[in-house]
Every structure is written in structure tokens, then in C-alpha cells.
Amino acid sequence: MRSAGYFSGLLLAALAFPGTGDSDFCTMSNTTFQAGETINLKIYYAVADLYFSGGDAVFSVNLEKWNDKTVYHITGKGKTNAFVDNAFRVRDSYETYIDTGTLKPYKFIRNVDEGGHKIYENISFVKPANTAITKTGVYKVPPCIQDVLSAVYNARNIDFNKYRINDKIPYSMFLDNQVYDLYIRYLGKEVIKTRYGKFRAIKFKPLLIYGTIFAGGEKMTVWVSDDSNHLPLRIESPISVGKISADMMSYHNLRYPLKSLISVR
């Protein structure tokens, strides 16, 4: 993103991501994940076709009470390893509290440190008023607004079977006190080999906001499992120097069997 791009870009794509129209994000319900689910991804860099391990990302879902409401408390954490820390240290934490019925967010917290650039953001979404409250003010937002992390888990619930190749799936996201109109472009289905194994996968490209590492536009490609979990399998994107990728390496407590898995490496 404009202010901090490393893990934000992975979140937008990973797991996927103007919402005022007829969008899946306005009528979403959860059919893919459950409380207790954890997903671990390994991040890799490539320079001159040489790949090396760069860090890890972990996503988890818990069922909690928030303001007397039962919500999904979803967290996403990313960090670089000791080798990469010397060049560009990343310690990112994202949290969202979303309605278990509508999957719309009530609160979003971003606490990131990317190359010494630190951001702390705490947003409350007031649904009846369609506003987002931050430390700098109150902002009008669309009824179907998403934060970075809620967009990822909403995107996992998209029924891709009803779309044709190159169809765009729009949504609106609030970040850095702004509303961004974004979309996911569906690219079809294919078999992909990852560092975990061989899968039947759904492929798409999320529209990204220009950032410090990621280029804007449709540069990033995402593959999720072609089964009822829509589990993120691989993310690839060019960056300012070389390429970055993330592969799913382990998971826990999926809602359904991982039927898209053809073979394990």
C-alpha cells in the first residue's frame, strides 16, 4: 500500500480482495472457514532466478465476544527471518473483528513495522451510520465496506463457479483514512505445483494499490484451493527488485477435507 506495502499486499491477495453495486461482498455469508482454523505460509524472494526464504505469515480464526456480539476474531501476522532483517525488517500484525452472519467488520487494528516505517491504526466501523472512526476523525463509508483482513476472508467465500474468465468482482476497502474501490479478476482454474504439493486451484488477480514494494494494478497472481475451503495455496508478484512469492506450508482445523490436493511433495 502507499504507506506500508509488504504484508498488506500479501493480505489483499492471499487468502484474495465499488462495493456499492451488486457485489458478492454485500451479501456474503461464511461457507468456507471455521473457528480454530490456522494457515501458515512461507515467504520467498527471487533475484536473478535464485530463490531464498524470506519469512513467514500466519493467519488464524477464533470465535469471541465483542460488545456483546459473537464475532470472528481473525489475525494475520507476518515477519521476515533473521537474514532478511538486515536489509528490510518486517514485523506486521493485523486484526479484524467481523460479524459471524454478514462477515462485515466491526473493528480493524493494524500494527506494522516495515523497514523502520511504523503504523498503528485502530478503526471502528459503525454500521447504522455507515462510518469509520479513526484517531483522526469520522469518515463516511459504503454499506459493504471491508478492511484489509476482512476482505481476505470474504473473498474466500466467493462462488467462483458463477463467473466467467476475466470477470471482475468489486469491493470497497477502507485503509489510511480512505475508501478504495478495488476488484478481483477471475482467471479460471488450473493444476498448480507448490512447495507443499500438487493441487487443483482457482486462479485470480487482485487489483492492488501502489505501494513501497508492490506495484499497483494487476501484477499479483493468487491461487486458492478448488474445493470448499478456498485455502490460499500460492501468491506471486514482482517487486521493486526481483519477485516475491508465498506458499501455504501447513494448516490446522480446516472446515472441510482438502479435496483439491492431488499429491504431497
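The above is record 1. Record 2 follows with the same two-line structure.
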Amino acid sequence: MLDVIRTLSLAMILTAFVAVESRSLRRALAAYMAQALLMVGVIAGFATIHPPLAIWALTAFATKFALISWVLWREIRRGGDEEVAPRVGPLVSAIVISVLAVACYRFVHVNVAVLAPTPMAEAEPFRTNVAVALTLLAIGVYAIVTRRDALKVVLGVCLMENGAHLSLVSLATTMRETVLIGIVTDVVVAVVLLLYLIRAIAERLGTRDSSQLALLKG
């Protein structure tokens, strides 16, 4: 099971790449949905070791895969499938994300004893999961900084959140499930509020281009 968890975790990097780089928002959303299922699979895998985590797996399926995907799909249908052109070209962007992935993976594997000074963190799949978690956080920040389409910015936030949850489930598998479920719920509320703001801005400006927000001044 630990090998399965490691494989599911590594696959999350590929889905993050597609979610950020795809110019089709429907394809980007499909990649996020695949990542959400992978996250649920990782949590479910850990639930075989710590059974109470099964509650978190069910909650993650309902929120990450079902609810967040649904509200994102509604906004894509409303505003169109084509992403507003990003600030960085596709070739440069692909190279940057690849470098981020390799750098984060190597950094964690070399410094895991400092980043997470526990014997468990130095074993697999925990060490790989921490590396993937840092990679997702980095890719999420990169998406927020370089994407002009507000929906892609929201996807960047979702990628960061998945990275945070991957590190939590890997290093704090005995954390109280009520706390974990509360964290998930907070993220859902944040995404819904962001999408509400995006809709209001799009109705005012006729675009989801976040670089046009300066037009709202005055």
C-alpha cells in the first residue's frame, strides 16, 4: 500500500502541470479533478493504516472533487473555455515548472531531516509525499503569479491547498479528523468567495483578466 500511495502522490505533479499549462479551462479543470481523486486515493491509502482517516477521504471527495469542481465548472460555462493569455509563454512556462518540480523534489530529499525532523519523514512514501507537497505549493504560487485568468488563479490556490493537505496526511496522520474537516471546509468557502468576486469583476469589466483590475480604481 505504501508503494501505491507514493505512486498516487507522484502522479499529482503531472496533473498540476496540465492544470496550469492547459489553455483550455475545461481541460485544466479535468486535470484538477484527477488530482482531487488522487488526493482522495492517498488519504484512503493512509486510512488502511489509520482507519479514522476514512472520514477525511469521504469529506475530501465531497468537497475537493465534487463541490469545488462543480462551482468551477459553472464559472467556466458562464465565462468561456479559453484561458486569458498568461504572462509567460508555454515553452518557458513548461521549463520553469519542470525546474520547480526537480528542485523541490531534490531539496526535500536532501534536507528532509531539517524540514521535518521525525524518523517517519525520512522513510517512504512520507519523504516523497513531502517533496510532492512542496512542489504543488510552488506550482500553485507560480500559477497565481503568472496567470492572468482569474479562474487559473483559483486553480493555483487549489493546487496549493492540495499540497498542504498532502503534507498533513503524510506527517500528521493521527491529527483529529474534526480539525482536518474544518480545514477542508474553510478552503471550500474561500474558493466560493473567490469565484463570486470573479463573477462580479467579469460582469463589470467583461473579462476575467486579473491584470485589468486597475480599471476598477475610482
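The helical segments are 2-21, 25-47, 53-79, 90-115, 126-146, 150-171, 177-205.
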